[in-house]
């Protein structure tokens, strides 16, 4: 069971002004070491190398997701909507708070190389031998499993899952506002209060009153802009590429039996994919940056160079490709090899739309639930059928191929056919 | 010599909207590894444990100080003020950008224990064998020494020093605005644009037109509020105390010849006070947090416990003391020793006003230059002589003693005379 | 009796984001013609001639005062404070909404000349034969009298009166924030949400938890700054002076039997002080500006000139007087008369502190209730006894004499003794 | 000739923080009575009846358009773009400031009924016997004609015209930001500073660097949202409809020889379409509201009722029509006539897209110049050819028919076929 706090606690928050904690369980979860660890994981990974304000952590984002969820539920309760299952309140709040608790340092790059998955880790932390698990079990023995179910999107009640994970969920609403605030761009701004006011529980779904359609359009446009202006910014992608190459190189060296000058627990277990939740706890961005710093002294020149590039922000340059000419790229790889730049570690082709971030696309192979409008006659319509704006940005696979390469590559020495890739006449 | 950039560069900044770089030298300085290192040093040290938004780095603050200086100089040039020595422009900009380049991780605690001093390190980095020094020398051979002179406040022209370091300098103006933005409080907000407009070079000083007096009052009130509401917040001070105790314990152990389970370059040199600028470069907050994390596994129980407290945010509790009763505190120390809590590491008395932060106090033993008002008859008056508000906050040694101690201390078992300290009847 | 609205209504508001209406009575009051009339009365009178953004009306301010009151009461109810008389909720909301309903156009000038008083008119509108009265009577026959009692500060329960009228009331909190927003200055900004959170009903008073002292200091500093930077701005005072002279001249002419070229109902009744509530309804700023515009064609040159000055913003110039030298001013008056500038209409001495606006001064002959801090031991202390800052701004009669006069006055032709007033050597 | 001011003047502005005046001519223009008159004309006409914050005047908007133009030109000059004709600076600034000087009160309604046209009046004021004309002539005898040419879009240099009047002009940029600020919605917010930075003069056009495409998309989306959420809000349209009917009725009565109880100069000349610039000066919103107030006492019940509806905000209700069924509407008109509600004055069909406001539609019969992107190879492309988002909102004639009618109309008494219009079963 959970108890209300004798006195409401508040956190000062730049995005929501204040975050209100009213339940002992929530307060205890925030104070677990696994949740406090999120203070050492940046919300936007390498993005701070493009937008220097983007140094905020997953800790503040997680509190924000919790707060938006709390506001939605409080609205549902104030209006006494019958379609809202009141008994799920605490479950929603806990899942909102914990949905990102499994995020590791620089998740994208690490996950690509080592096959970890943050959602899976969130569930392991919720279910394993952790402080988080102990707090949740105090609510009831089966409570941790329910929370993990919501995070894994397998929980039986869609309405609970959709608050945390859908095309219009508390997670996205917080990160758009928060990332906009900390980067300083104003693309991510939309009228949160209005959207909260037009949300309704309705026959097992969260829907939106039709009168709020323009507000949702505005939210979706914010998302669109944030993706193209911030999340997919080529400099951020370049940093991501360099970091990915560092890990690929380290993994290769490890598998080849290379003796690292610097090795620290639990790095080896990460390489061996044998991390326990106790080990995982140690993996934060401070750890990873320290490893990178020490690797700048490694004997392996590629590992040392790439680590140094990331820390000193000597990132790869990039060029936009009109199309993907496989043969031409093969030739480039060969030429790079000849010039002493191993293309496996000094070249990356990136196509920003196949990323974990996604723009709104109903009907796609995307597990995210669509946005439904509820009209005055109580019928539901998927929003892109009513809004030309939404139609124009959905199903969008726009995005261009980018080629990343080191600034020092002597492009002028390449043969003209290859040089054309770099759009230099 | 320096050259203008062929095309102005901009950084998106949440506080100033954009930061404009117009000189090759400035651009090159930003790209040195010593300056990039500031991305890994938080601007507000342990304050993020109180205000979770306060995760911004000294990198963004340093850019901000540069930008405010640039705006001030641009105003001086546009108005063609005769008392402004135009030839000092680049010197001012470089000193503004680099004034904090010597800051280490969690400066306050580290400096107290190991006797490093950030200003001194800034000068060493400017003058030593560093990328920063190489960029500065390209301007002229004696340029690094001039920059170090401004940072050390020994440069011959007071007007140059006062832009970077006075009661109304670019440093403070940026940090008040920036810290307010990232913590989310609005105490630090004042009308920067107006203050910039009323600043004037005048006979070797930077002065303020009398018509701007209320704007300066507002700025000083912001400072006052930020000190008492944010910088001296008891939870931040508690985190500082825990951290300080970690380092004190480690130093003691080191001096006693304890064999650390985890030791990493250049930690030993920090203990021995033998850091070179190359070593210093490795010391960032990622490094220090990793050390703390590894120390949670040390055999020494005090070091392990204190490190863990800091990382898990199990900070000390505190109580406000009406006065400092030395005898009573001696008794408390004895009692703690008996209970197994070594008071050297589990108790701290803090008096927030004797800190490196200071409130406005002309006439005090403070090296900061006072604020002078210029009236329509061209005479100068120190502001507190004209403003009752300023008078009321200057010379202020307010502040109360706080006693910090572990939550687990069994206060009830103490004898009543000592228990009174904790204001429990 | 009153009923809740079947669906909450909202107004979009730039200051509070949204204003929420939940009661039929409030909704009906907003839709009365007397309340709608407030759309045609500016909140800040002549201030828009200094700060062009200050064009907002008493309508939006009145909604804001209502909204802040609603938020305070909602907090009281959520926390179930025993000292709060729940049955007074609707009374508070209605009084908050209606406290300014009796404001006329350019109140200060008109009230000075014609002896009307806006608080008295608010009561007459609440009690008279009006739409407002009809809506209030639907609650209960004695309800209008109660509302008038709160507005007139004669209502028996101090706690109700103090919400609307004290040193920390909903009225001031709204106008500081709103006037700051519309003028564009940021002096008026303070943390409303925090202040609302530390307010408590306590033994018949509204008090503030001691932990909120700094937030209240910040609010009081905002007030101080707004008074000296915005409300007492000499250009606003100049416009006020010109307007006052217009009315003085018109009144004199009327009393002398002058035949106005333009006379329109109910202007004559204003002159005769015989306005009924029906007449009063017609008196708005559109009316008054139209009268001024038509008076620019009057035969009386002084009336025509002054009216034109106000509309074309050819205001009086001003000079600050170090002290009030009555003899010298007498000489100036004589000299002006000789030069053909009747000093009764072309000269004004203004001392900004004896105005209807006031800064915080406990113990003064001010009916406003002081701010009391509630400490952890449940004892109350007046704030200036704990806060040095508040002490420094209370009891403040600062302010300087200003002399207003027409730009065209040939100062150089005055004899040197008089010319000294104008600080010209 | 014009001279720079000896000291820059500033206006505090909530949108641009400060507005800077550097030329004597601009300062003198602002102080003319014709420009000051804009203080008495609301920027958004009847919109304040929907969004109560929207009480700002054309005066502040005009200053804003001037300020944005000043910023654009200052950027052009700083970058020394060769394609910018520097000698046109003052012309641009004057035209920016004066482009709306001919706006009358509640322009839309008045213009529809009386055939006045604000652009034509702006030119008449610039060219006629006015203070504005006298100030302009001081620059050079032919200067007024040039300014009028820019306003009328007949000036020979397209680049000058397009700053003030194109799809991305200073006028729109200011009103979107300003109207968003004063209404309190955040749809109108976009990154002005970024857009200004990517604008370029190029071969006689103002173009946008391709790298700024997303910023322009964001601006166009703001426009789209503002049109549908604010400018076309049905309540604003309803107020517009009522006002239009007032004037239609008054005109009809006048033409029928009705003797008005209240008639005031220059109302009759407005009816007769014989206004001179001197007369026009008197026509402001104060004047018009006073006329409406007096007309509430007219003997003609329709004129009295409609005037009262507008002032008391008893507006028409509305219903959205799926399509325009002319026959059905004829029947409704007949039924209304029978019930005593003259449909000429109590019914209005409105289709929001055929208004003076327009959304972006290149290729349409719209005189506004398109937005051109300049790529790195110096070729120009119209933006909708590169941006799917822009394509989706251009050529948009979306919008629905609305039927406006009095709330008191007894719909239930209508026969079922007509009743269906009101979507009541």
UniProtKB/TrEMBL annotation, chains A, B, C, D:
SMART domains: HDc. CDD domains: HDc (cd00077). It comes from Paenibacillus gyeongsangnamensis. Residues 58-176 form the HD domain. It comes from the Bacteria. This is HD domain-containing protein.
